[in-house]
Write a structure and sequence with these properties.
Elements lengths: L20 H9 L4 H39 L2 H11 L5
Length: 90
């Protein structure tokens, strides 16, 4: 189950939206609840934006890690070597 990025139990708030009048009238005539559709679309847009931000941060972090490895070597390999050199190593 996907975790929501907002509080679905938060109090509803009246907002003003500008929509195509013909589209709104036809959707309303078909029984489409514009508020529900707008809320669902905003939730999806928010999830996409947050995912894009997280992907960008991960990419930046991987770039920094790769630059470190290029300059200093692998931290995991350094740790293995350090532990292998210990007197009490099995």
């Amino acid at each position: 189950m996907r975790q929501l990025n907002y509080d679905p139990a938060a109090r509803k708030r009246t907002v003003s939206l500008t929509l195509n009048g013909d589209l709104y009238a036809k959707a309303k005539a078909q029984g489409i609840n514009a508020s529900q559709v707008a809320e669902a679309a905003l939730a999806e847009a928010l999830a996409v934006r947050i995912s894009e931000k997280v992907r960008a941060e991960i990419s930046q972090d991987l770039g920094a890690y790769n630059a470190y490895v290029e300059k200093h070597g692998s931290p995991a390999e350094m740790l293995r070597e350090h532990l292998a050199d210990r007197d009490d190593a099995a």
